[in-house]
Specification:
globular, alpha+beta, homotetramer, Thiol Ester Dehydrase, Chain A
């Protein structure tokens, strides 16, 4: 295993791990004992934590939120998530989680995720994230810097 | 709070908690500290564990799997899940998770879930469950007893 | 099962569940699927979450912290914990977690915990909790109201 | 950050991370969002999962259990654990968990653990592990190979 764990992978490493274009951001990790359930494979709920870990690294790397302090932190609310389970994962297997923004609207955007291990596509998922005012209720327009990052780095499209 | 926690609720209790027809199965529970994240509300991944807890009680109550021993236990594989987050939940709030099978096919079925608290519909979700042979690979036809329970208790429809 | 889950039990209910004197505070709960590990019993780390859930209910019931808002919330820091595992617990078993303060010093106190199920003493534990100033660094003297509650309700002793 | 995550570190890396002699086995990891609680630092129960992850890597590396299959797997039962919390950990901090067997008896042994981050000793802990027959009840004598590994690699002492 030569991938750095929990650090952004190079495009070459992503492609070598089986992550297809246009995914441009991903991190590797390894399955731990406490993520397994009675059936000896990774429990279904863990994938949402994996997507969350990837998402936070993504938001930091794309300059959207530093996740530090609380004063100027943008209020990002998870509106929905989904997961498709394709191949189960087992103890100590190394896997890559990749994520990209595939579409954006005026006040929200849609990320897609994938999990790859040993060249196999093990799971995919989606999440819709909404930008809110500090009242956690009023939706807020996405800053141009977000849109720019989504378009240039991920090839995201506007969904209107 | 007069609802029994983690035990099947009566139809009257379900309706009083805001769970609409045709949901016929649900359980109440209470938010714990370790389910909260930095934002002081229940973390997104917990909802999949809540659906799982409900699903296992459902499978036992509907005579599908006792979740005991391993010899004759049917091999049920979670194919996909989704969650829509509507209203966040906080420490010690009591909530009801309800679930029903809304559709079935020859070898799989689709459950829908909902979370209600204090009369508000806080989240909804879906899951597709596949019945497998003991090889965990070959799909297997649903026994008539499953279909009978899905139709008569939940009003499930055949999706072909 | 007739115990209310996750609500303070009466002394009679505690004794009937096998919880000995001088324990005066406890709650019942039920084992969930996601708490099991590959060995089909509750994972060792879950007991710390159970103690935490009990501790927060205890702190509210004893008038120490409401766990609401952040302004006047006392800064309680967990200094150490320990668990002794005696009897493993399995899916859907109902158990009681009880806790009491057995000793206090000027700026900290020691709680002991126990887990009982079906009349068996399944686990025990301890935790030391320190009261801090808002800087999270300087230890602070326990208010007389804490000491009064520890002594009269739990029979706690001063350790000097 | 140049440490490999979740892979056994060299002695030089351990010492550079602040892990003192005679610790000979440790792995690095990084704090994830879902490990934080409302107080914005790693929740107390996570440390038991960290020790568990380290312990399983240790048992594999020391030739005690491969954690594969179930036929010949030794029955290792966790008898007790404890944690001392010294310095809280925050989002994305890299830390090293190290573990060693400090003492053994005829049918059980005691491991000690430590967590270091940025040169600080953040937590310590212990666990007692018992070797059982396949009935999970009868204690079994430790094979000479375990004792040899504990003594030569960790400097463990016999406690009689």
């Amino acid at each position: 295993m030569t991938l750095p764990l929990l650090a952004p992978l190079s495009t070459d490493d992503l492609r070598a791990a089986g992550v297809p274009e246009p995914f441009a951001f991903g991190q590797a990790d390894r399955v731990r004992f406490h993520e397994l359930d009675v059936l000896d494979h990774v429990n279904n709920a863990c994938y949402l934590s994996w997507f969350e870990t990837l998402r936070i690294a993504y938001l930091r790397a794309y300059g959207i939120s530093a996740y530090e302090g609380t004063a100027d932190r943008p209020v990002l609310v998870l509106k929905s998530v989904s997961v498709d389970y394709k191949v189960p994962l087992h103890l100590e297997e190394v896997y890559v989680v990749a994520g990209r923004t595939r579409a954006y609207r005026n006040r929200s955007w849609t990320m897609e995720y994938g999990v790859w291990s040993d060249g196999r596509h093990c799971a995919s998922g989606e999440a819709v994230i909404v930008l809110m005012e500090n009242d956690f209720t009023t939706r807020k327009a996405l800053p141009e810097s977000y849109v720019e990052a989504f378009r240039t780095r991920d090839g995201a499209v506007y969904e209107g």
